[in-house]
Amino acid sequence: MFSTAATITEPRRQRPQQLLVLLATLMTVLLGGCALVNHETHPSGPSSNPFDSAHPLSDDQAMAQVVDPAKQIVAAADLDGVSGGFSFASCNDQGDPPYRGTATIHFLIQGDPDAYFQKIQDALVSHGWNPGAPPGQIFHGTTLNKDGVTANMSFLPSDHSYGEINLYGECRNMTDHHNDGKTNATNITDQLQVH
């Protein structure tokens, strides 16, 4: 008598084995790819890497890195109705170091918003700012960068008669700001006022 049981079950036994080989190969490629990352040593001195913790910034340096450009932006773009704040922000989801300094400028929009934002962008470019985000960073809205600082411009979400420029410094402050209150905004309006 002729039996088909051996012919039917043999391919079924090969499928799980083939699937295991395929999964093992896929996992090797995926996990092995992570091990191919090369870390380059940095020359002495600061680098252009915004996450360069080998050359840390003190709290005062991290603050100056964004507050000084904020003052320059207010003056260069001749902004009115200015207010602002400074805080430290962690560069990771855990709230651990490194931190960066962040500054926010609020300003009154004069006339057509698109034309006004373009006027501000043109003024900043004429003062050495580069259009767009630094390489490897993605922002939405009008973005410029200069000397490790990124400026992102948009409407103030709660009041579209005002604009907002957020400045982000480099992730080079290694102080743990978990519990020192410095991640809460400090008013810097008086420093931004053009006298």
Describe the structure.
This protein is α+β, with helices and mostly antiparallel strands and 195 residues long. It has a domain at 59-192: Threonyl-tRNA Synthetase, Chain A, domain 2 (2-Layer Sandwich). It contains four helices and seven strands; from the N terminus they run ααββαβββββα. A seven-stranded antiparallel sheet has the order 3-4-5-6-2-1-7. It is globular, with a radius of gyration of 26 Å. Mean pLDDT is 81; it is low at 22-47.
Q: Which structural class matches the secondary elements? A: alpha+beta
User: Any guess at the CATH architecture of the domain at 59-192?
Assistant: 2-Layer Sandwich
Residue share in β-strands: 15-25%
Order of helical and strand elements:
HHEEHEEEEEH
Extended strand count = 7
Which CATH C-level class of the domain at 59-192 is it? Alpha Beta
Q: State the helicity in percent bands.
A: 25-40%
Count the helices. How many?
A: 4
Mean pLDDT: 81
Blueprint (SSEs and pairs):
Elements: H1 5-34, H2 59-76, E1 80-90, E2 99-108, H3 113-126, E3 130-131, E4 142-146, E5 149-156, E6 159-168, E7 186-187, H4 189-192
Antiparallel strand pairs: 1-2, 1-7, 2-6, 3-4, 4-5, 5-6
